[in-house]
Amino acid sequence: MAKNPKDNDWKDRLNVVYSTNPDFNYEMDDEEEQATLQPSQQRLRVQLDRKNRGGKVVTLITGFVGTEDDLKELGKFLKSKCGVGGSAKDGEVIVQGDFKQKVLELLKKEGYTQTKPVE
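RESULT FIELD:
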């Protein structure tokens, strides 16, 4: 099957330098992020964690389903309400310090009704 040169636009393969294969077809990396669930459908788990943190206690919120931007927004909200630092990546939010109860209350007020503490 002969390919139309116009179907193989050079802008779509900017990082490909050269291919000797005449049948080469560059495949795009179109990974779609998972859509963010409504707060009432999120099944978040809140726990205290000390592992690999030099003995420091952090509050760990796991189970978030959604885009990285929405996760960072949730992390920013929780960190600002607790008045501490932390991070939000890889589907979990880390809030520095022991804020388990406060985080649970904040999440429930924001509509995350399926949030549960983990012992």
